[in-house]
Amino acid sequence: MSMRLALTATTALAAFALASCDKPAPKVEAKAPFSVYEASIPDMQAAMKDGRTTSKEIVTQYLTRIGMYGGKLNAAIAVNANAIAEAEALDAERKAGKVRGPLHGIPVALKDNIMDKDDMPTSGGMLAFKYYMAPYDATLTANLKKAGAIIIAKSTMSELAGWFGGEPIRTPGGYNGAIGQSYNPYDPRANDDGTPVMEVAGSSSGVGVAANLWAANVGTSTGGSIEAPSNANMLVGIRPSTGRISRYGIVPLSLDQDTAGPMAKTVTDATIMLGVLEGDPDPNDPRTTTCTPPANHDYTPFLKADALKGARIGIPRGGIYTALEGVKGRGQGLKPEELESMEAAIAALKAAGAEVIDSDIPSAVAKDDADNLAAHPICQKASELKDAKELCSNVLRYSMKRDFNAWLASLDDKAPVKTLTEFLKWNIDHKDYGAIRYGQARLEVADSMDLEKDKARYEADRASDLKLSRDQGLDAPIKANNLDVLMFPGASGANYATKAGYPIMTVPFGLTANPNPGAKGSPDKTRPFGVSFVGKLCDEPKMLAIGYAFEQATKKRVPPKATP
Asked: Is 90 exceeded by the pLDDT of residue 167?
């Protein structure tokens, strides 16, 4: 090479180098820090797998949010002081190549009537049990721990699953003697008397999940206490077939109707929770042999976005969507804007390919009180049952005494009371400390039950409940129209599903005006009002598929503005 060519090449290289120096260095995209806000369980698992976060960081973020909003909402009765240490141990397992499953390192909360012997007391919302450490884990608690979930808190609840207070005193949902009143994050204001402006709709609490204080919640339902609070807080709530999840280690209201179930922001999250909670048949709960679980207790393969295509969905209009003519006090139907929201939901079903069939429920449209389920409310007053023709159902107050006393007998010597009668006296003795702010009328009528003399009436009422909720209830339209599920407004399907023991799930959809009669109620559309799907006994797979497809077709959930 000539000297001139060499110089030219050198000059060119120098010029290129100088030009390169003038150009800014290529930008490296900085990854945004992982946030738990509105994050799903799969989001968290993916972030931990990729090294973008850890269980410890997730727990820390949730604890920070509990500190920011927990007092405003009164979402937790207790918080796990060992949560960070447990997260560190689970992070170490992950680093070593051991991942227990989809809940590994995920913080969840338990309703505080579910026993946890290690981390926090189990109060059942009772002041008497506020500091009581359970002597054993509930079966579902053991299932969660085995799966690597972190029990970050005990979520608040209506005291004894709502079985306190009573006539003539109005008892708000979400109140208990252990921690006080909780508030709805979609409108967390209080009325002048301390009651919530917007109902939280106990007895479980959806407050903490809705406000992103933990990833998911385990609630319990006897008469709608998963369905109603999930609907009120714009959550997915699943009340499975009774027996799908063991009830052992849960403070009971009535083992005829009690069950636990997940509450979460998405159908996927709730479905993941359901599989873990179910576990294997439990010798401590004979009803856990009722339904056959899917392979590996994994329900997620049933979640398909096109599941509404060809699905047959029943709409039980009479007495539920629309009022019954010539009948007072029941079957009043929906308010105009609620009906408008439900018609939009029906339109969404059709647009996604579902066949929608008007399918009245015989026990919802019956004019004769004897044949109408709504005319058979829960017996709650001392004066009830004196008339043999009375239609109120004695099931809950009879079985409450039977099952609550049996649970007390399973506890250790540290339990503050041994019988329901002792508990009533304890409350009276501690009235000045807030034990019975709303009285204990329901407890008193339960304790008045004679488990021998009142057994025949209880058995007759239980048989009536099953007939009106199953044979003349859900089974009739499902069989007549070959339905996959029925779709109810809000959580209104609970009265049927809980008595029948059939699965029901709520899915977020609409927002309506807050109907609270207090001066602070709002005409703005801020109150969550979703839908609920009710399926056949043990047919959770079909119900979950339809709920998931509806969720994906609509995607209506919005987070509360009060807890950004």
From this structure: no
